[in-house]
Amino acid sequence: MSHGKDIGDMLVEEILTDVATSFLGERKEIEDQIVIFNTYVTALKKKEIGISNLVSRLNSLFLETRFTELFFRSIGVEPEKFLCLCHEPCPQDPVEKLPFFLSSKNKYIFISTAVYRRLQEAVTQYRGGGNAINCFEKPYCTDEDVNYQVVLLMAEMINEKIKKMKKSKSPSTVLQFAKSLNPELTEKEKITGALSSDYEESLDRKLEQPLIDVSGLSLKTYPNLPEAGEVRDKIVCHCKALYKTHKKEISRLLKHR
Questions:
Q1: Is the dihedral of CA 203, 208, 211, 213 positive or negative?
Q2: What residues contact residue 99 under an 8 Å CB cut-off, 6+ apart?
Q3: pLDDT digit string, tens, across residues 51-106
């Protein structure tokens, strides 16, 4: 009889070990993915800073916010999401090497076009799209790979895993299963009274992994910008009009260029 009980105890212990390993293993996998997710969010935030700097640089080239607003509207883009980013531009903001023979007006057009091109490319890369799925096929994403769509998709993927685990392997469910393998404890609970549902809910709240709240990350969204080549005529027209009415200010702006 004792031998049979020992075998039974060993089987119970083995089952409990498997259950614990499975529960903790899934939780560890989710936690590891959240760590990676947070590095992606950090990389995306850095890109937001880069976009903000480029918008500010373009705004300084166009002298006043109202002129920047006119430019964005002229290329068919609602300006609000960009104008709120304007701040004093960084002193060092390199652009493409300038041809030495450019006149002051053409230099102004050249620099403005170059900054807009960089802004358009940065926004396009930030927004992402088709390459979001490809990023998941890699062991990890580089900072360059990370985009808004990657972050949204990864948050959705992690949340689905958390929901699935919550449904099938909540801490209280695992605890109840473990207790069911111990007849003595089950019998004792019949006498003393099982743990209250309030306690089980409290246990779940303390130990369950919370869902990722994407809205709480305060990630920025930007409207799509047309490529520089598509709107070059409008960039040139806008720069010429500004140069004509604000030649001294623009020349002073380009003095050290």
A1: positive
A2: 110
A3: 999 999 999 999 999 999 999 999 999 999 999 888 876 655 555 566 666 788 99
> 0.85 exceeded by the pTM?
no
For 163, counting Cβ atoms within 10 Å of its Cβ (0-12 exposed, 13-18 middle, 19+ buried), the class is exposed
249, part of any domain: yes
Looking up tokens 């260029």 gives 257
The number of distinct structural domains making up the chain is 1
Q: Which domain holds residue 118?
A: 29-156+224-253
Q: Please name the residues in contact with 26: beta carbons below 8 A apart, sequence gap of 6 or more.
A: 161, 165, 169
Q: What is the pLDDT of residues 192-249, one digit of tens each?
A: 445 445 545 554 555 577 899 999 999 999 999 999 999 999 999 999 999 999 999 9
CA 83 to chain centre: 21
Joined together, the tokens standing for residue 133 give 């799925």
Does residue 148 fall inside a structural domain? yes
98 located within any domain? yes
Whether 137 contacts 27, CB under 8 Å: no
Q: At 80, which amino acid appears?
A: E
**Residue 87 placed within a domain:** yes
DSSP reduced 3-state for 256: coil
Per-residue 3-state assignment (H helix, E strand, C coil) for 158-224: HHHHHHHHHHHCCHHHHHHHHHHCCHHHHHHHHHHCCCCHHHHHHHHHHHCCCCCCHHHHCCCCCCC
Q: What is the distance, to the nearest Å, from the Cα of residue 80 to the centroid of all Cα atoms in its chain?
A: 21
